[in-house]
Amino acid sequence: MEFEGLLLSLLFSGGTTLGGAWWSLKRWSQARHLLDTPTSKVRSAAQGYAEFYGVLAESAEAQLRAPLTGKACLWWRFKIEEYQSSGKKRSWRVVESASSEAWLRLNDGTGDCLIDPCGAEVRPAIREVWQGNLRHPMVSATRGVLGWLGSGKRYRYSEERLQVGQPLYAIGDFRSSGGGRQARDLEAAQSAVIREWKGEFSGLLQRFDSDRNGQLDEQEWSRVRLAAQLEAEDRHHQESAQPAQHHLGKPAESRPFILANAGEDELARHFYWQAAGAAALCLVGALATAWLLGVRVL
């Protein structure tokens, strides 16, 4: 085998080995996170990483319209592929794709949780795939007969949607505000107020520089700290008086952030199968690498 061909083959087999190992470990870890994290209720969930199971409810904003079908939904993702043919080589090339960023609302019977889907692995139950001869299938509906003439090209469309009333499994970083649920760290809140006031130092001097010398002495700084403490306490009381709001988003750590119409057992089983397939791919890549290097594997 020529050196260039051997090098390319080694790069391919080595990449297959590393990619398979990485994907296998990732899916195995995700499955364990799903099974090891207990299901919580929105009303009583602890702050931090949590999982919920409920129903998708209508949001305060108007429902979205999926861009390829025009159907009402709460979330959408689409992909448009163009068929390409060159000699014996035929393939589908992605020419356009996008997903919505509108927040979702999950209700589990004890309360509502707003979900920011950005960064989530979303696995909807509804997925439609079809083909046509227009880059945007909705064009035919607006152009009438002329829209059906097409462009002579072939396109494949896929659209996924989340809709009102569907069950939703969600796991991610859970945070609450209002309703008296915030931890009261008076010292940190006081420091935050002082930093905010320092941003407008001229206003700070106007309020607390009694001798008008353009500086704040120790006695004046004591008044600043006392006023900041009172301000921090007042802000805490105002926030606590607000109704509780719950949010779910992407965890800061490398933990799964998943939104799915399926339950955790089905998802974990699917992830285990993917982990096993990736492990087999890793083994094949390792054996191919060993064979290319002339190593006899017993």
Automatic annotation (TrEMBL):
Q: Specify the E3 Ubiquitin ligase MUL1-like domain's residue ranges.
A: 84-180
What reaction(s) does this enzyme catalyze? Answer: S-ubiquitinyl-[E2 ubiquitin-conjugating enzyme]-L-cysteine + [acceptor protein]-L-lysine = [E2 ubiquitin-conjugating enzyme]-L-cysteine + N(6)-ubiquitinyl-[acceptor protein]-L-lysine
Compartments, record wording = Membrane
EC number(s) given by UniProt: 2.3.2.27
What the entry lists under InterPro entries is as follows: EF_Hand_1_Ca_BS, MUL1-like
Per UniProt, the keywords (alphabetical) are: Membrane, Metal-binding, Transferase, Transmembrane, Transmembrane helix, Ubl conjugation pathway, Zinc, Zinc-finger
Its membrane topology: Multi-pass membrane protein
Query: Does the keyword Cell division feature in the UniProt annotation?
Result: no
Residues annotated as transmembrane: 271-293
Query: What is the protein's major site of localization?
Result: membrane
Pfam families the UniProt entry points to: GIDE
Q: Which positions are tagged coiled coil?
A: none
For this entry, the protein name equals: RING-type E3 ubiquitin transferase
